[in-house]
Amino acid sequence: MKQKYRLIPRMCISKILLLGMMSVLTACGGQSAAEKAAAEQQAKAKKVVKQVQPADPLAGMSSAITGSKGTVPVEVRFELLDRPEPNKPVNVRLAFVPSTDLDALHAVVKPSTGLQVAEDTQVKFDAPKSGEIKEYKYVAIPTAAGIFLCNIDVTVTRDTGDTQFTFTLPIPVPEATTGKTASSGVNNAVPATK
User: Which of 42, 107, 117, 186 is the one with CA 20 to 30 A from 177?
Assistant: First the structure.
């Protein structure tokens, strides 16, 4: 038996092909209005998250050391703003961060032998709040090379009375650098290799 095939007119074939291409294009990359809106909201949310992150004001600062035992109601951070060199001023930035509300905070800088500071290196902050950063800058002048210690005597005033804490920060001053080492007199230059 022979089967008879029915011929499909050309107009119908082109409509079928057009319909097929449209369905393929829609499936491959077309988005509905709801999908586009959701994608835009996600992009906006990512931009907002990136803008909200503020810079840390204590970044780059080191913690001063205290020998006090127990809970200390204030943290002291420091940063050397200049490279220490013998007989040259070094700007030192201090940050006081109370861990509780205080009535007052008074700090006095006391350098070790070989380190000079101005006589009025003291500061007082009235009623600093918990987490509030209080800054103070002073200038120290090392008289020679070595590691010098600077004590910061901090007195905190609370409703229970005054309490004093001593914090220590190091100021390392390297020897003046020249082309030769001090001990051997040998040149530090590295020979070129082929």
Answer: 117
Residue 56 is classified by DSSP as: P
Report the CATH number at residue 168: 2.60.40.10
Please indicate, yes or no, if residue 15 is contained in any of the structural domains. no
The pLDDT tens digits of the residues spanning 18-40 come to 555 555 555 555 556 666 666 77
Helices (H), 30-122: 33-52
User: Is 153 within a domain?
Assistant: yes
Distance CA 141, CA 139 (A): 7
User: Is 68 a member of any domain?
Assistant: yes
**What's the pTM value of the predicted model, to 2 decimals?**
0.63
Q: Is 189's pLDDT higher than 50? A: no
pLDDT given for residue 59 in this prediction: 86
Asked if the structure places residue 112 within a domain, the reply is: yes
From the list 115, 114, 74, the residue with the least C-alpha distance to 95 is 74
Total number of domains in the chain: 1
The DSSP letter of residue 145 is S
Show the tokens assigned to 40: 């835009």
Cα-Cα-Cα-Cα torsion 25, 29, 34, 39, nearest 10 degrees, comes to: -170
pLDDT tens sequence across 76-116: 999 999 999 999 999 999 999 999 999 999 999 999 999 99
Looking up tokens 């127990």 gives 70
Q: Which residues of 64-87 are buried (b: 16+ CB within 10 A; e: fewer)?
A: bebeeeeebbbbbbbbbeeebbee
